[in-house]
Amino acid sequence: ALPICRPDQDDFFVPLLESYMSMCEPQTLCHILGFKFKFYQDPSGDTPSSLYRVAAVLLQHHLVDLDDLYAHLLPVDNTIIEEHRREIMEAKQIVRKLTLVILSSEKSDEKEKDKEKEEDR
Hints:
Blueprint: H1 10-21, H2 28-40, H3 49-60, H4 66-70, H5 77-120
């Protein structure tokens, strides 16, 4: 990650990066950060929390733009929407099954009560 992941040295690294940004394209830092995020976004990789902290500090100091960084992040919006729909459908199916179990258990309880009443007579 970038050297700024040491919170005790933000006061040193932020001005350093600001002076660096004056000598290069505004997108450069965002592309570097985006590359780091993509590196960790394979199925077996875990993105280190320090990378999120670096991104937060750079966003806070306006060294990168969120809209520019967003393009480098995964999953893409369509995948998030599809996954959300799938999870909602699965949750509805679970609720239906639970409702059937509860209703059938209530019916069996009623049948048992009816049998007990008949036996008492």
